[in-house]
């Protein structure tokens, strides 16, 4: 019996997210079925993160237990030859049997990409969130720092997932501006449902002047979802890396 | 009578290139028909560059002569509301009547993007050329400098276009590496048919060790298309800017 850890890149544009759902095409189901087709076993794929519809991944991680004897270095090309072109297995490695893509994870890194200009994008349109309002980058940068550290992020969570606690630790947050693109990188021990997209939406509201930078502390403390910004669009979000 | 200059961004993935062709969907025809629909005139659109099928543009330029009275600042949004989402008018300005998008151009800047890793791309797949062979970036950089200056680029031209001379001046060439991405920027007074893609393909061959850096001078001098590298895929190419 072997435990195989996969690192996966995907373009989420055409899928109803990672998680298997009845009558909807999900990334999890497609990869799971492709592995079953390869191994001829009824394997169960465990993903680190249930990315939503339209969200991308450069480094999603998943694992499965198998009896099959295929050499691990052959797994990526064997699966990629059967997978659709918008899902690519970057790497496969054998890991201890107790490795669990979700529970063993100690941290995640996401990016969020904003195109800030009046006209909508023709290029890269599936990979950015378009904001036509003029954003004050320095204010967004200042505001972003308030998210660092350990907080109860109830104000930055959508309803729909049951978690024991809303306390999370953000260890790194970075905002980079390159001409019309504003890119947010955020790293933490875990993220609540829609947390990165609500943080991104809140920073957009700061950039537009609808929320002041210095009120972020208050909004966090309020634990009130209504005080944070909008949930920014899925297209801007990418799961960059999962740490173990 | 007014002459309107448009700056256009487009994703070339779904089109048979810029130029109007019978029974094929072209970017030129779509924009021209959209302008005709707006102005109710039989206008003729003049593009600066006939980008091929799958080639993108961040700054294609085109112009048209019109009698219509619509304020120039309203033209982008008026056209964008009717254009498909992968073609966006970034800007419109009124220019002198003798301005001609093609003949008035004094230079162009292109980028070419290579994804250099074993596995094919799931993300950004329409915007990169994938190269699975390990590329020696330093050799590519050294080789690129031989293209600078004024040369007869007959060895770097596909047949199929009739031009008076194959002499062109490359004023700037830059190669940038960012993890798995190698990006080529090239600027010159004009480019022959497929010239940027053949230069990119030749640099890829240098990176793979199939062509030595120091033979670029010889290849240029030979004027022999067979001695240069392959024509690299259209997806990596983007018309960044046209100078006037």
From TrEMBL, chains A, B:
InterPro entries, A to Z: PsdUridine_synth_cat_dom_sf (IPR020103), PsdUridine_synth_TruA (IPR001406), PsdUridine_synth_TruA_a/b_dom (IPR020097), PsdUridine_synth_TruA_C (IPR020095), TruA/RsuA/RluB/E/F_N (IPR020094)
Entry keyword set: Isomerase, tRNA processing
Domain Pseudouridine synthase I TruA alpha/beta residues, every copy: 8-104, 143-244
Gene Ontology MF: a single term: RNA binding
Gene Ontology biological-process annotations: tRNA pseudouridine synthesis
Catalytic activity: uridine(38/39/40) in tRNA = pseudouridine(38/39/40) in tRNA
EC number: 5.4.99.12
Binding positions for substrate per the UniProt entry: 110
Pfam family, one: PseudoU_synth_1
UniProt-annotated catalytic positions: 52 (nucleophile)
Assembly: Homodimer.
Similarity section: Belongs to the tRNA pseudouridine synthase TruA family.
PANTHER family named among the record's database cross-references: PSEUDOURIDYLATE SYNTHASE, TRNA PSEUDOURIDINE SYNTHASE-LIKE 1
Its biological purpose: Formation of pseudouridine at positions 38, 39 and 40 in the anticodon stem and loop of transfer RNAs.
NCBIfam families per UniProt: hisT_truA (TIGR00071)
Name this protein carries in UniProt: tRNA pseudouridine synthase A
Taxonomic lineage: Bacteria, Bacillati, Bacillota, Clostridia, Eubacteriales
């Amino acid at each position: 019996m072997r435990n195989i850890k996969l690192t996966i890149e995907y373009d989420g544009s055409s899928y109803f997210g990672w998680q298997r759902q009845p009558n909807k095409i999900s990334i999890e189901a497609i990869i799971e079925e492709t592995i079953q087709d390869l191994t001829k076993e009824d394997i169960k794929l465990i993903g680190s993160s249930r990315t939503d519809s339209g969200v991308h991944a450069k480094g999603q991680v998943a694992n499965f237990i198998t009896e099959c004897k295929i050499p691990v270095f052959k797994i990526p090309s064997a699966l990629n030859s059967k997978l659709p072109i918008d899902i690519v297995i970057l790497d496969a490695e054998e890991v201890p049997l107790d490795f669990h893509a979700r529970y063993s994870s100690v941290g995640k890194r996401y990016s969020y990409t904003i195109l800030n200009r009046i006209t909508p994008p023709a290029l890269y349109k599936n990979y950015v969130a378009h904001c036509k309002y003029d954003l004050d980058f320095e204010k967004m940068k200042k505001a972003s720092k308030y998210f660092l550290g350990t907080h109860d992020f109830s104000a930055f969570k959508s309803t729909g997932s049951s978690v024991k606690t809303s306390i999370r630790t953000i260890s790194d947050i970075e905002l980079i501006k390159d001409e019309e693109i504003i890119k947010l990188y955020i790293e933490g021990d875990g993220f609540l449902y829609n947390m990165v997209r609500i943080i991104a939406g809140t920073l957009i509201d700061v950039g537009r002047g609808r929320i002041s930078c210095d009120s972020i502390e208050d909004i966090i403390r309020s634990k009130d979802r209504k005080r944070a910004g909008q949930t920014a669009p899925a297209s801007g979000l990418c799961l960059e890396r999962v740490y173990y």
